[in-house]
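Please review the protein record below. Tell me whether the encoded fold seems credible here:
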Amino acid sequence: MSIELPPLPYDKQALEPYMSAETLTYHHDKHHAAYVNKLNELIAGSELEDHSLEDIIWSAKGVIFNNAAQIWNHNFFWHCLTPQGGGEPPSILLNAIMDKWGSFEAFKKQFTEQAIANFGSGWTWLVNNEQGKLSIVNTANADTPLTHAGITPILTVDVWEHAYYIDHRNARVDYLAAFWALVNWNFVQQNYVRDLS
């Protein structure tokens, strides 16, 4: 069994003008695909060859972990976006956000600030902990919440430069502004509600 590159859940033009088809072509078809190809090359003929992506992430280290985790993070990220995105989340998640941050705008501000301050390459996440409490965490490079006990990823934004350099050059702040117009709040709430059940 080989690890496959999932198709994007929308056409490459669908996220314009916030995220260009050129960005999606390079980000999904080149960067994401390269992680898939490299992982399959690394696990070919090994004991991991027939394992699921999640099992590989939980058991591997080094370059195998890095490629596997980057695949999972990207798979998750694409579903955090939608052409019908933006606005506020549905009521269950919105109420949880307001309980934690006082307002949706305060949450967006903190998430954006943490994503901008996430040094180098990495990911910024909205996660849920074992007590059902939301928090914002940064991970570096290929690190993923899957390997952190007690937290469940709810939402992520990719802050590696390849995610935004074509559209925004080095202006991560502009990329974050565009990101909020694309967030798939239905997907995010589904992750939150599933974790509570």
Summary: The chain has two domains: 21-80, 91-195. The chain has a mean pLDDT of 96.
